[in-house]
């Protein structure tokens, strides 16, 4: 295909969770503005079950009605095909979809945690219940791609059941596929070429490329502002905000030589993805090894159960994860703070010597505080230079606590971590996401757009499959970073927000078709996505 030839691009979203359909429509408008064709695939209540129906446990007709009302057809009727329509279309025989494609959804739906959980009949039953819709979606997506002669496909998520089937259908036909997801702090779009939403290859490459380049003053302030909002509990644009009514208290254990904070993550959303697979398997195996390596006593540690475990996601609670970690801590004699306990996790971070984490976003605040972060599993921050590698027995052998260093070396390490965290935050929020100036979040599910944005970046991504930094500017030296890091060291979080430059360009909401416009007003009063 020549660079000037017209492309036929497919956009697929099975679920109508906000704001994902809206994001796909914006991308489709960009494609059409560049002179290419946009085609769509949706679900018109074609599947016997799906992730959303299993998640909420409501009557199928009710879930499907709500989903269809908020789906692709509420924005456009041109070039829209349904899974049911494509399923009935004649075509060549399609190989069966592997049952593995249903496992990630089953994992998240049941909020499974331990190896015993994944070996259970409950997990297997969930997998088998989801598999028929994966097979249906895979066959339908292949026929859609072939019949519409698509050159590339943009699909929401690409990890869960039907979305995974669509992602794999494109790959099986040698068609470029880009997964589309909401970004960490809302602005821009997460567009991963030939990786679904959990892929780490493009992200790690950009982290390595940009971690040693200084930030300009405006970039550094922006980067620090994301941590500032968390410290001030103003992070309303993240998908979830935890511990918002927290109370800061004293370190809950006396008599220890060290203060090591354990912050485990839920395993269920990343389980099974090779990019996130730890050599330890279970994080508790890593905890045991670290305790032995560093000769830690029970009074040196505090386990903070994730506040997420105290919340229900759909019909499922987080008791499997909480039980898995708290029972281990009880056997070890380690003090545990329950998921629903209002103790401030940020307050614990301020007082600790080091944190041990798997893949959680607490690395942002920890790094801004200059705290040592010990990572026991692969994650989105491993290549940013902000953590100590403890993802394998081999790596663990070199682990040492910064608190054991001479005072001047401890100070140097703290300053280095704060600088690297600043650069990590900017890369994570303004280089890896695309169109960060053209797609702006006003709230978790409410967005505005620059409809004059240049589609070239998207077209080049679809043609070439290489993710480039959305912002390629950087400073000649670290002078501008130093001024911002001074504010960080002083914990001047409000001051950082006060000097933050805002986007002056007037952006506009993306509107549905006229009959569906009242829908958004109603939906703002309803739970979002997986609530």
Structure described in brief:
The chain is an alpha/beta fold and 531 residues long. The protein has helices at residues 20-33, 51-56, 60-69, 83-88, 103-110, 115-118, 121-147, 161-172, 201-210, 217-231, 283-294, 319-332, 345-351, 363-368, 393-396, 407-431, 456-464, 479-489, 493-498, 518-523, and strands at residues 8-12, 37-42, 80-82, 152-156, 176-181, 190-193, 260-263, 301-304, 335-337, 354-357, 372-375, 388-389, 439-441, 447-449.
Can you lay out the helices and strands and say which pair or pack?
Blueprint: E1 8-12, H1 20-33, E2 37-42, H2 51-56, H3 60-69, E3 80-82, H4 83-88, H5 103-110, H6 115-118, H7 121-147, E4 152-156, H8 161-172, E5 176-181, E6 190-193, H9 201-210, H10 217-231, E7 260-263, H11 283-294, E8 301-304, H12 319-332, E9 335-337, H13 345-351, E10 354-357, H14 363-368, E11 372-375, E12 388-389, H15 393-396, H16 407-431, E13 439-441, E14 447-449, H17 456-464, H18 479-489, H19 493-498, H20 518-523
Helix pairs in contact: 5-7, 7-8, 9-16, 10-16, 10-18, 16-18
């Amino acid at each position: 295909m020549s660079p000037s030839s017209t492309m036929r691009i497919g956009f697929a979203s099975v679920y109508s969770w906000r704001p994902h359909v809206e994001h796909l429509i914006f991308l489709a408008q960009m494609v059409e503005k560049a002179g290419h064709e946009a085609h769509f695939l949706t679900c018109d209540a074609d599947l016997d079950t799906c992730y959303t129906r299993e998640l909420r446990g409501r009557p199928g007709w009710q879930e499907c009605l709500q989903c269809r009302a908020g789906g692709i057809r509420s924005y456009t009727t041109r070039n829209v095909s349904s899974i049911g329509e494509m399923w009935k279309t004649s075509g060549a025989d399609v190989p069966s979809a592997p049952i593995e494609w249903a496992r990630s959804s089953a994992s998240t739906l049941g909020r499974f945690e331990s190896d015993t959980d994944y070996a259970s009949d409950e997990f297997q039953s969930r997998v088998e219940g989801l598999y028929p819709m994966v097979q249906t979606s895979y066959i339908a997506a292949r026929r859609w791609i072939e019949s519409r002669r698509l050159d590339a496909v943009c699909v929401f998520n690409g990890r869960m059941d039907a979305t995974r089937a669509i992602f794999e259908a494109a790959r099986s036909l040698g068609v470029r596929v880009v997964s589309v997801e909401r970004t960490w702090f809302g602005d821009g779009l997460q567009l991963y070429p030939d990786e679904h939403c959990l892929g780490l290859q493009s992200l790690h490459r950009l982290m390595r490329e940009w971690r040693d380049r200084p930030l300009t003053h405006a970039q550094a302030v922006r980067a620090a502002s994301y941590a500032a909002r968390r410290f001030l509990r103003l992070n309303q644009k993240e998908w979830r905000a935890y511990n918002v009514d927290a109370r800061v208290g004293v370190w809950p254990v006396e008599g220890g030589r060290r203060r090591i904070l354990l912050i485990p993550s839920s395993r269920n959303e990343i389980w099974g993805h090779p990019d996130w697979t730890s050599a330890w398997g279970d994080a508790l195996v890593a905890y045991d090894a670290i305790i032995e390596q560093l000769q830690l006593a029970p009074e040196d540690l505090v386990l903070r159960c994730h506040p997420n475990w105290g919340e229900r996601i759909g019909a499922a609670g987080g008791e499997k994860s909480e039980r898995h970690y708290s029972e281990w801590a009880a056997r070890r004699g380690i003090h545990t703070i329950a998921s629903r306990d209002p103790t401030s996790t940020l307050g614990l971070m301020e007082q600790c010597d080091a944190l041990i984490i798997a893949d959680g976003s607490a690395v942002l605040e920890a790094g801004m505080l200059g705290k040592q972060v010990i990572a026991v599993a692969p994650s989105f921050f491993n290549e940013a230079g902000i953590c100590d590698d403890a993802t394998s027995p081999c790596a663990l052998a070199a682990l040492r606590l910064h608190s054991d260093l001479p005072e001047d070396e401890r100070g140097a390490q703290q300053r280095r971590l704060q600088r690297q965290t600043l650069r990590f935050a900017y890369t994570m929020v303004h280089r890896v996401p695309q169109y960060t100036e053209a797609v702006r979040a006003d709230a978790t599910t409410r967005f505005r757009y620059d409809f004059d944005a240049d589609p070239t970046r998207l077209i080049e991504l679809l043609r070439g499959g290489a993710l480039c930094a959305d912002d390629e500017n950087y400073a000649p030296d670290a002078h501008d970073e130093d001024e911002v890091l001074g504010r960080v060291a002083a914990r001047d979080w409000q001051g950082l927000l006060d000097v933050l430059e805002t986007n002056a360009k007037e952006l506009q909401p993306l509107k549905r078709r006229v009959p569906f416009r009242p829908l958004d007003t109603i939906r703002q009063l309803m739970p979002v996505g997986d609530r």
